[in-house]
Amino acid sequence: MIDPELRQLYQEVILDHGRSPRNCGKPDQFTCEAQGNNPMCGDRLTVYIDLADDGSIREAAFEGRGCAISMASASMMTEMLKGKSRAEAEALFRSFQALCTSDAAEAEDGADVDALERLQVLAGVRAFPVRVKCATLPWHTMQAAVSGQGGQEVTTEL
Amino acid sequence: MEGTAAVNLAPGDNSTAALDVERVRRDFPILQETVYDRPLVYFDNAASVQKPRQVIEAMSEAYETYYANVHRGVHHMSQRSTEVFEAGREKVARFLNAPSPDQIVLTRGTTESINLVAASYGRAFLEEGDEVILSVMEHHSNIVPWQLLRDELGIVIKVAPIDDQANFLLDDFAELLSPRTKLVAITHISNALGTVVPIEAVVRLAHEAGAVVLVDGAQAVAHMEIDVQALDVDFYAFSSHKLYGPTGIGGLYGKAELLERMPPYQGGGEMIDVVTFEKTTYKEPPHRFEAGTPAIVEGIGLGAAIDYVSALGRETIAAHESGLTEYAGERLSSVEGLKLHSRAKERASIMAFEMAGAHPHDIGTIVDRAGVAIRAGHHCAQPVMERFGVSATARASFGLYNTREEIDVLVDALGRVKEIFG
Ligand SMILES: Cc1ncc(COP(=O)(O)O)c(C=O)c1O
A156 in a domain, yes or no? Predict the structure, then answer.
């Protein structure tokens, strides 16, 4: 008898991404990177982005260790960033952030609704306020990488 | 009287007094609380322990009946506050077996006590090239003050190792000592692993090399008898909130001849003798190191906490906790896929572990839903986490009010972790 909110948090999709994260490891080719740090639990990750000449995201990858939620979030994020412009990536990030904190969140204009639909599996963090940061850290780190703030480490203590 | 020891003789053994856990549990109001409709199982005692009614009431009584600033008023309330506050200092002195209450500086806690030694003793008596030895298990509060001093003075920091079972390696420590070693700053009990450091031997070796020893007693004071004279330590730091007392206060014991030679740490009221714009003279220790209005009611609460723990008896508490630790060791080892990091021969009631396939953070969330409060993370001791090649562990730590049944609840909740992460 597992608490339904726990079931909601640890859905099969999340466990699967957590066990075998996609795009995990430092790629040969990338144009920017940033480090993310969750000082509360000691987790760290690095996000690598390969930007095309037009500024869109050609490839995304990450490296690091963390809880199932942060690993799944990073893994799913790298899958869905491919081919997006910076503006699209950031719109998706803001919509995802809203989804993690509010039941009534609406997708921002320009956010990929299909991607957001897939990210719904992470909405279970709403019932676990301290875990929201685990879900959003990879996205904060991605944003720092694409906006050229890779020199500074991103922390969740914002 | 409230607060008398809940001690009775264990059946069939009249040499050891066993702790009457059911009775002590009634002293802790928070233990009646529920979490997600489950009784609270509080296993985060290494972070901070819960407070007995006796401490809460002593503090309310102070605020309600005799609160005033200390050491300054001629009026009745100030005298009464001062008396009870200073009685707290005397209790600390007796508790640690310090020769005199004048050797107890009241600080905000362990962190401030260590910073005081680094800033006052360190700046006055260390110079470039001098060596300070720490252990790899130190809490960040016993690492960073020495790094600040290193940046300022150019001292050298050396690190004493542990083995894979988390045992402190005394011989390796001895090897690090040199004529340039001026100070050893070391934990008594590791908060991340529970390892107990053989302080007497460390002190003997350090003194032979001419170094003074500061012991971080944050984790030790609530779990074992501390006799600063028998240990022959030069400084001993602790926090009240890990000793069943309030936050915001703690202490530093120092040898009299060292405290007397040390310059002030902070400037302000309370620590001065005569102030003119040309020259100020300072009070004798311990007041020289206590600038500003102290945490008055917290000091009174600390006194009440010491009365509470002393009445139960630290040996009795230690026996109860070592029983729990042994039981937890057996039960946790039976959990499939669980790896215990706390395996030192000499260890206290702290169990750090990992589970295959489940991150400590996820373990913490899942057992929380069963009402069990454990810590997941780096425990403010990142270097020792690195030593074991992990970024985080889960940690269950026990206090005097914990029971075997509660350990069963934890083990059961770890079954949920397996169910989810399988
Ligand atoms: C071994 C050790 N040293 C130092 C500290 C710091 O204590 P405080 O935060 O009360 O100053 C702690 C508390 O977490 C500890 O466990």
Answer: no
- Stretch A114-121: mean pLDDT, rounded? 93
**Residue A58 and residue A5 in contact, taking contact as beta carbons nearer than 8 Å:** no
What ipTM was estimated for this complex? Answer: 0.90
pLDDT band at A156, cuts 50/70/90?
low
Count of domains forming chain A: 1
Contact B359 A19 (CB under 8 A): no
Average pLDDT over residues A66-74: 94
DSSP A78: H
Instruction: Report cis status (omega within 30 of 0) of the bond before B286.
Output: yes
Domain boundaries, chain B: 58-310, 313-421
**Long-range contacts, stretch B331-335, CB < 8 angstroms, 24+ apart:** B331/B407, B331/B408, B331/B411, B332/B411, B332/B414, B334/B411, B335/B411, B335/B414, B335/B415, B335/B418
The conformation of residue A85, written as its DSSP 8-state character, comes to -
Q: What is the DSSP string of B220-281?
A: TTTTS---HHHHT-SEEEEEGGGTTS-SS-EEEEE-HHHHHHPPPSS-STTSEEEE-SS-EE
pLDDT in the model for residue B5 = 43
User: Where does ligand 1 bind, in terms of residues with CB under 6 Å?
Assistant: B 109-111, 139, 141-142, 187, 191, 216, 218-219, 239, 241, 380
Mean pLDDT score, B21-48: 97
Instruction: Find the closest chain B residue to A3 by CA distance.
Output: B369
Within B240-380, strands assigned E span 250-254, 272-275, 280-282, 338-340, 350-355, 372-373, 375-377
Asked if the domains B58-310 and B313-421 are classified in one and the same CATH topology, the answer is no
pTM: 0.92
Within 10 Å of residue B78's Cβ, how many Cβ atoms? 17
Q: How confident is the model at residue A107 (pLDDT cuts 50, 70, 90)?
A: confident
Q: Is the pLDDT of residue A74 over 70?
A: yes
Q: How far is A62 from chain B (nearest CA, A)?
A: 17
The torsion angle over the Cα atoms of residues B318, B323, B329 and B335, rounded to 10 degrees, is -130
CATH number at residue A26: 3.90.1010.10
Q: What angle do CA B101, B118, B207 make, to 5 degrees?
A: 75
> How is B13-55 classified by DSSP, letter by letter?
-SSSEEE-HHHHHTT-GGGG-EETTEE-EE-BTTT-----HHH
Taking an 8 Å cut-off on Cβ atoms, the answer to whether A3 and B36 are in contact is yes
* pLDDT of B183 strictly over 70: yes
Distance separating alpha carbons of residues B351 and A111, to the nearest angstrom: 46
